[in-house]
Amino acid sequence: MGSDGTSPAYRRLGAAQRREQLLRAALDLFAGRPPEEVSVDGVAEHAGVSRPLVYRYFPGGKEQLYEAALRSAADELEKCFDEPRQGPLTARLGRSLQRYLGFVERHATGFAALLQGGSVVETSRTDAIVDEVRRKAAEQILLHLEVDAPGTRLRLAVRTWISAVEAASLIWLDEQKQPPREELRDWLLDHFVALLTATALRDPQTAAAAERALGREVTEGSASRLLDALLPHVPQTPGAPLESPTAVT
Description:
The chain is mainly α. The protein has one domain (14-231): Tetracycline Repressor, domain 2 (Orthogonal Bundle), CATH 1.10.357. It has helices at 15-32, 40-47, 51-57, 62-80, 89-106, 108-116, 124-144, 152-174, 181-200, 204-214, 222-230. The longest helix has 23 residues, at 152-174.
């Protein structure tokens, strides 16, 4: 009870604060179970409020709550890839992946239900929200590659990697979060480097981006060892001689 004798859940809140409270309660429940197993009554109980209060803020009921919770989760996921464009590329992507996999770990059941589909509250709008997260992630990665007008092959490579990250995350959950998160992160980074290098073999634009970005990698670590093996096979582009990774100052 609060100092005024009222329940903490029923303390007077502004409209924005109350809506945020209900969204947090919904996210907690959607994170721990499939969406079809979450009810408005369950959200009300978890938030410590009445059922009519939930409908006051979400008159569309469970479907509106799910879409709003999904939008909130999508905003958090999009921020995972918001990384300053400074330092080695794999270090930037590594930090983004660490945040992404942390989100997956915190919202395991809800994340799986979201990506696998099949929810009774799934709509075209929820599909659009998921697609927007993928699009924003691809845009961020292309910015890190310093490519303003990416061609089909480079876009295909980046979107393929994002799909691989999603699939690996689902499999990781099925495998009881094994291997450890850091090992999965490093493997996904290796996957990105290998995919980018393989694409560079057939696409000059990707080759130039790979030379720019991967040539700045540090001289130690798994990414550097992989680059030492792969970069010599990337075709050189005019004016940009191919070099092995050099130390970053």
